[in-house]
Specification:
The protein contains 33 helices and 17 strands. The protein is about 45% helix and about 10% strand. By secondary structure, it is α/β, with parallel strands linked by helices. The chain folds into 5 domains: about 200 residues, Rossmann fold, CATH 3.40.50.300; about 190 residues, Rossmann fold; about 100 residues, Winged helix-like DNA-binding domain superfamily/Winged helix DNA-binding domain (Arc Repressor Mutant, subunit A, Orthogonal Bundle); about 70 residues, HRDC domain (DNA polymerase, domain 1, Orthogonal Bundle); about 100 residues, Arc Repressor Mutant, subunit A. The strands form 4 sheets. The chain has a 7-stranded parallel sheet, with helices on both faces. A 6-stranded parallel sheet has the order 8-13-12-9-11-10, with helices on both faces. The chain is globular and about 95 Å long.
């Protein structure tokens, strides 16, 4: 133990070899050593761990560190052992230990060898652990990732809310709570719950000036990600996905494309997770594809990019996850892919939860939507959310976002802002953003009729502009401080003093045109089936369609049997000029490329040469053969004539999802004989009628058009099954 005469600065030098503290670390450490409850809000990379590690080493007794993740505890314990000549200096106590290991930990603590003991909140619910901790000398409690206490935080854990009574049962000692992200609401919630309203609060700036923030429309995501990473060879990065399935799939696609990547999610066993984490830290792999479980407390300073394949559930999550980039102050590029369809998916997950939880979840999602769609400086928007003002002209890192680098058009909006503020004032803070937008554009709904606001002068007063314009205006007025958002009532708007002042003396106010993501598709499907998408090279697209028509005529098949539109569109992007490259085109497998590909390859090669086109062949994305194990299994089961619904169930898929997978297999050139199944559900005449429609009459393979043609005589499922049979027999 360090002598009590040693100062924190001396201890810092002795243990960690640093000459000076970062930011407010020294003040925080002195506060805790003086016996005060202390609350630290410090962005990722700011050095939170030091705020409790150093006081623990300097104090008598053992500091109890409550931490939410077993992997995080292991990482922290390994790190603190590096600064000591004795491994007993730090231990963790959790469900991963066997009885012998638990006894060793307890023995070291009792003998006074252990200065930091990491525990999971669940461990504190066990009476035997409470009894043990009550019998030892505790220096203080450190609650790491304290946002887990708040239902308004992004990673709420119910067991965290029970910490205070358990701590009181053990010992009345100082508490230090630490988090990398907390709005004022979350901060208050944490302090109330831990009974530390008297705590000394240290809040560092949330501005990570070296991070570049960018939102991209969610189109061809895998292709964009691979291209992004290949432009940064040898650089470390983390990609976040919301589902384990997507994590596994993307990690596989990256590896096929020559990028060293590993998956990380709660479905992997603890050994695999620890191994993958260590390989990332040791730079044996460049990229970790993970669910949100990865990264908390991982001390890798040179993560150069953080990509969100799926938009996160809250801005707190987004801020914390992006904060894992550039912790050394160097480059940190943060890209998130956005589609409103993903928000709708997340909203569906909220249904069935308690009403209050749903309301909180919906509001947090709306903040994410606002951030993604805004055209104002992203740093200013983000910092405002955390209660910090930012000068978008002169602030540090002001130009480090896509909106600042590629600014949108601005229009004079003084009169519109006056109208908006007067409307908010008149309605006395009882309504949310969407309500005001509908009122101003004159969109009648039940709520507006119930409140009789359709009878007021405000109804339709802003119909000269669309919904996007008004949502942008409201967001700008919130960030500017003219309008406030009432958190307790889940996001109702009210006029602030600053807004009142603007109404009394209106001045020029430039409204920035919003980003438009209305045509974004969301997740990639196995087989692109969208009609009328845009080709990158319209001239080539026309030529390919003409060629397809000619080949279809020669073969006496409909054009879509040769190649579907999405495949032609992809050819206008990739310009394939070899059989291998043709097989990388969406919806084209080896069989299809062999059967129909050569004339298209010849036409494209000639077109490329004549027009001196610089092909993007430094980047050709290879796709994973439709989860090859799964595909082989499906084909074998169909060969055995197992019912399709039984195969779908064995694959743990909904039947509709399973049909999409079959369509992908057939589209890539594999023949499937599913007659045995179709003949069980449709009579011979019906099959013949639908088959002939696709062969003789259909201009496209659209199921919607087929459904209309038959006036609903056949279900979409039946039509898809016959189309599968048709495409398998005629196209392959």
């Amino acid at each position: 133990m360090i002598s009590s005469t040693m100062t924190p600065k001396d201890a810092l030098r002795t243990y960690f070899g640093f000459e000076s503290f970062k930011g407010e670390q020294e003040d925080v450490i002195n506060s805790l050593l003086d016996g005060n409850h202390t609350f630290v809000i410090m962005p990722t990379g700011g050095g939170k761990s030091m705020c409790y590690q150093l006081p623990a080493l300097m104090s008598e007794g053992t500091a109890i560190v409550v931490s939410p993740l077993i992997a995080l505890m292991k990482n922290q314990v390994d790190a603190i052992r590096q600064v000591s000549d004795n491994d007993s200096v730090a231990h963790f106590l959790n469900s991963s230990l066997n009885k012998t290991e638990i006894n060793k930990v307890k023995s070291d603590v009792i003998e006074g060898k252990t200065k930091l003991l990491y525990v999971a909140p669940e461990s504190l619910t066990k009476q035997e652990n409470i009894d043990f901790l009550s019998s030892i000398k505790i220096s203080f409690f450190a609650i790491d990732e304290a946002h887990c206490i708040s239902e308004w935080g992004h990673d709420f854990r119910p067991e965290y809310r029970r910490l205070r009574p358990m701590i009181e049962m053990i010992d009345k000692v100082p508490i230090i709570a630490l988090t990398a992200t907390a709005t004022d609401k979350v901060q208050l919630d944490i302090q109330k719950n831990l009974g530390m309203l008297d705590a000394k609060v240290y809040k560092s700036s949330f501005n990570r000036k070296n991070l570049f923030y960018e939102i991209r429309p969610k189109k061809d995501v895998q292709k964009q990600i691979i291209k992004f990473i290949k432009e940064r060879p040898g650089k470390s990065g983390i990609i976040y996905c919301l589902s384990r399935k997507k994590v596994e799939e993307l990690a596989q696609v990256l590896n096929v494309n020559g990028i060293k990547a590993l998956p990380y999610h709660a479905g992997l066993d603890a050994t695999s997770r620890a191994k993958h984490q260590d390989m990332f830290l040791m730079e044996d792999v460049d990229v970790i594809v993970a669910t949100i479980a990865f990264g908390m407390g991982i001390d890798k300073p040179d993560v150069r990019f953080v990509i969100h394949h799926d938009i996160p559930k809250s801005l707190e999550s987004y801020y914390q996850e992006t904060g894992r980039a550039g912790r050394d102050g160097g480059e940190g590029h943060c890209v998130a892919f956005y589609s409103y369809k993903d928000i709708e998916k997340l909203e569906k997950f909220l249904h069935g939860k308690p009403v209050a939880e749903q309301e909180i979840g919906f509001q947090l999602l709306q903040e994410v939507v606002s951030y993604a769609e805004t055209s104002i400086n992203r740093r200013k928007f983000l910092l405002h959310y955390f209660g910090e003002e930012f000068d978008e002209n002169n602030g540090e890192g002001a130009a480090m976002c896509d909106n600042s680098r590629f600014p949108k058009e601005k229009v004079e909006g003084k009169d519109d802002v006056v109208l908006l503020l007067n409307t908010v004032k008149a309605l006395e803070g009882k309504h949310k953003m969407k309500y005001f937008i509908n009122l101003l554009i004159g969109k009648k709904n039940n709520d507006i009729v119930t409140y009789k606001h359709d009878k007021t002068s405000y109804f339709g007063a802003g119909k000269a502009h669309d919904e996007s314009y008004w949502s942008g205006a409201i967001r700008q007025c919130i960030v500017e401080g003219f309008i406030g958002k009432e958190i307790e009532s889940y996001g109702t708007l009210f006029l602030t003093k600053k807004g009142e002042d603007f109404l009394a003396n209106p001045t020029s106010f430039m409204i920035i045109k919003q980003n438009d993501y209305s045509d974004v598709d969301g997740d990639e499907s196995i087989i692109p089936n969208k009609q009328g998408a845009q080709a990158a090279d319209e001239v080539l697209f026309g030529m390919l369609k003409d060629l397809r028509k000619q080949i279809a005529k020669d073969k006496s098949v409909p054009p879509f049997v040769v190649f579907q539109d999405p495949s032609l569109e992809d050819m206008t992007v990739q310009y394939p000029i070899s059989m291998e490259e043709m097989q990388n085109i969406a919806g084209v497998g080896a069989g299809k490329a062999k059967r129909y590909g050569q004339p298209f390859i010849d036409l494209i090669a000639k077109y490329v040469e004549e027009n001196e086109i610089d092909r993007p062949q430094d980047f050709v994305m290879k796709s994973v053969v439709n989860k090859s194990g799964s595909k082989v299994n499906i084909i074998m089961n169909i060969d055995k004539k197992l019912p399709l619904d039984v195969i779908a169930k064995s694959q743990q898929k909904e039947f509709e999802e399973f049909l999409t997978e079959l369509e992908g297999i057939v589209a890539s050139g594999t023949k499937l004989n599913i007659d045995y199944y179709i003949n069980d559900i449709l009579d011979e005449e019906a099959v013949e009628e639908v088959y002939e429609y696709f062969l003789e009459e259909a201009e496209t393979d659209s199921i919607e058009e087929a459904y209309e043609e038959f006036d609903g005589d056949y279900s979409e499922e039946e039509l898809r099954l016959v189309r599968l049979k048709f495409m398998s027999e005629v196209a392959n």
